[in-house]
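Subject: sequence -> structure tokens, single chain

Hey, anyone have a minute? Need the predicted structure for the following. Not urgent.
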Amino acid sequence: MWVWYSLAHLVIWLYTEGMNDRVFRALADPTRRQILELLRAGPLPAGKIAVHFPASQPTISRHLQVLKQAGLVRDERRGQYILYHLNTTVLQGWLQWVWERWGGTGNTCAHITAPEPRCGRG
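Reply:
Had a minute. Here:
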């Protein structure tokens, strides 16, 4: 029984650590952080995201793929478009993980709420 319990915890730890590595890598890039900021206002297709950056649309699509692999963004096909949504569930789980490790003993993120969307770049 102990072996199964340990194996289950190892699998969960490996999954969580892998997920966290992908999230850290995704958030390390300023362009990807700006994409997440844009998606706070609501879902957007890649073309509407791309107009906010000097990079080409294929480059933005690669950034979106990295964000998707990290679980920070999900996509939804609507007709000929793919809309990208901010996945707050993964972001909240990641923030909880960070807070538990570096925020202090016994702390939770239950009191943290998402900030109100901002207009413009201010």
